[in-house]
């Protein structure tokens, strides 16, 4: 089984992984009507492990007839409990093993991102403190914004606004929570470099020239909407 059966709602590293009744139907061979019946019959048991979430999927555009479908989203504990209610056929057993593997892989990936994100917070504070303590930069309110733009542009190849738009990140949320491990590593590395250059007494333009000559650390691939490219 090569397809993904475990997902997160967004790219946010704090999202909870889940699978769906649709995936269980597709790879276990059990009809969704039967799966949904098991879910509703054991609803109180499943809700002991969290809110029982679902989405309403509308019929595909252009299709004839059809009604909206309720697609349940099950977290790891709920999915683990649910599959114990299924007949232990070879296909179901294969799906159970794959589900366990993918939940573990997803949690490991999110944990790695959280660790890198946490370690990067210290570097971010040091850069901010370096700006505040710099006799060259202190008192210039706009340099914080300039350095943030420079940080993302030279670390990932995009400024924060384009990153937010491509990742559909709300303006109130920090884009750092939507970066993968490679992106966070690149950002942390650039933060440390900027901090060092500030401590050496360099001004913004000099630091920008140095970093621009080094090139982008990790070129992020984003699907940027047309309006964001102009």
How would you explain this protein's 3D organization?
Helix content is 57%, strand content 6%. The protein has 10 helices and 3 strands. A 3-stranded antiparallel sheet has the order 1-3-2. Residues 225-230 have low confidence and may be disordered.
Could you say which overall geometry the principal axes of the C-alpha atoms support? elongated
Strand pairing plus helix content: what structural class? mainly alpha
For the largest beta-sheet, the strand count, sense and barrel status come to: 3 strands, antiparallel
Strand order of the largest sheet: 1-3-2
**Secondary-structure element series:** EHHHEEHHHHHHH
Q: What is the CA-based Rg, rounded?
A: 23 Å
Bin the strand percentage. 5-15%
Summarize the structure.
By secondary structure, the protein is mainly α. The protein has helices at 21-28, 32-41, 43-46, 76-84, 90-133, 142-156, 160-167, 181-199, 204-214, 226-229; strands at 19-20, 53-57, 69-74. It contains 10 helices and 3 strands; from the N terminus they run E-H-H-H-E-E-H-H-H-H-H-H-H.
Task: Summarize the SSE layout with pairings.
Blueprint: E1 19-20, H1 21-28, H2 32-41, H3 43-46, E2 53-57, E3 69-74, H4 76-84, H5 90-133, H6 142-156, H7 160-167, H8 181-199, H9 204-214, H10 226-229
Antiparallel strand pairs: 1-3, 2-3
Defining key terms:
disordered C terminus; 230 residues; single chain; three-stranded antiparallel beta sheet; mainly alpha
